[in-house]
């Protein structure tokens, strides 16, 4: 019994991991859709969820904000465009990239894949440079191409979340076997992209999130403005650099555009200078148990 308690103490899921799981389930609560092989089209589908979660996933109960933005730009419907921009502003100003670290189903899956026991590629100047690529993807495939092609270009040509959650999930159901005859080069290309991204996530922490995700690029623009996020007490900080070394993202400082506010730095800080806050309200401080496990690792 004592050994079981010790194992659970060392391996129990963190608060963030449980929030990620619940958020993924909440955004995909229509589990019946997997059995029916149909996309949920109830009234909740008109609302945007905060994370990258494909509208075409059979279980999705809301709309992906990135897909909604592209569709609104492509169609030129001002009402829809104002609504989506308003939702993104609300998400960005309230949560910023906390959404990436705590609420995004795509980010959750990437982290689970990275836990597979394989050699890992550490962050470097090269990964930091590649982190700028997602801004080019945002500019070209989300903002520039949709009105020219009259289609959501990122969803159509790249999005691995859409391929996995939408296309693959629907095609896996026998009721949709007739759809295979309609597949062509576009699906093949997207399936190759999905395979490459999933493989990369095993070896590179959140590779899609860091290098390709335009939604993360959008939320990063709110890094200095978001209400919720990790904060550093400048008076307590000694600039020891342990927070930067423990962070798996390509940050230059805690809370910058690449920070997903996962909180790993909170327990790594020897001065207890980092906390997760919502305005002046402290939501999370250092966890002594986690800090002790780090020392023993």
Give a quick set of tags describing it.
297 residues; mainly alpha; 2 domains; 17 helices
Structural summary, described in words:
By secondary structure, the protein is mainly alpha-helical. It has two domains: 14-220, no CATH class; 228-296, Alpha-Beta Plaits (2-Layer Sandwich), CATH 3.30.70. It has 17 helices and three strands. The protein has helices at residues 2-11, 15-27, 32-36, 65-75, 78-94, 98-103, 105-114, 125-130, 133-149, 153-157, 160-171, 185-203, 207-211, 214-220, 242-246, 264-268, 288-296, and strands at residues 228-232, 274-278, 281-284. Strands 1-2-3 form a three-stranded antiparallel β-sheet. Strand 2 (274-278) and strand 3 (281-284) form a beta hairpin. Helix 4 (65-75) runs antiparallel to helix 5 (78-94) and helix 7 (105-114) packs across helix 12. It is globular, with a radius of gyration of 20 Å. The model has no long low-confidence stretch (mean pLDDT 93).
């Amino acid at each position: 019994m004592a050994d079981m308690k010790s194992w659970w103490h060392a391996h129990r899921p963190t608060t963030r991991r449980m929030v990620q799981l619940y958020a993924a389930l909440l955004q995909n609560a229509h589990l019946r859709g997997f059995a029916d092989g149909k996309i949920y089209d109830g009234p909740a589908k008109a609302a945007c969820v905060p994370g990258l979660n494909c509208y075409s996933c059979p279980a999705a109960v809301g709309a992906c904000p990135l897909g909604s933005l592209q569709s609104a730009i492509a169609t030129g419907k001002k009402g829809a465009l104002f609504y989506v921009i308003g939702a993104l502003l609300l998400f960005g100003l309230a949560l910023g990239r906390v959404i990436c670290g705590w609420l995004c189903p795509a980010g959750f899956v990437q982290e689970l894949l990275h836990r597979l026991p394989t050699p890992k590629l550490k962050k470097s100047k090269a990964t930091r440079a590649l982190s700028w690529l997602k801004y080019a993807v945002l500019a070209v495939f989300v903002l520039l191409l949709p009105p020219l092609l009259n289609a959501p270009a990122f969803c159509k040509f790249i999005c691995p979340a859409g391929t996995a959650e939408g296309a693959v999930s629907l095609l896996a159901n026998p009721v949709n076997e007739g759809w295979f005859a309609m597949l062509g080069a576009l699906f093949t290309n997207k399936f190759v992209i999905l395979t490459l991204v999933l493989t990369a996530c095993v070896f590179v922490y959140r590779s899609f999130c860091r290098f390709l995700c335009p939604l993360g690029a959008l939320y990063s623009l709110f890094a200095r403005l978001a209400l919720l996020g990790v904060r550093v007490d400048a008076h307590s900080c000694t600039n020891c650099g342990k927070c930067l070394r423990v962070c798996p993202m390509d940050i230059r400082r805690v809370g910058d555009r690449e920070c997903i506010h996962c909180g790993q730095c909170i327990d790594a800080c020897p001065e207890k200078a980092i906390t997760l806050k919502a305005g002046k309200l402290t939501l999370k401080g250092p966890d002594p148990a986690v800090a002790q496990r780090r020392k023993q690792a």
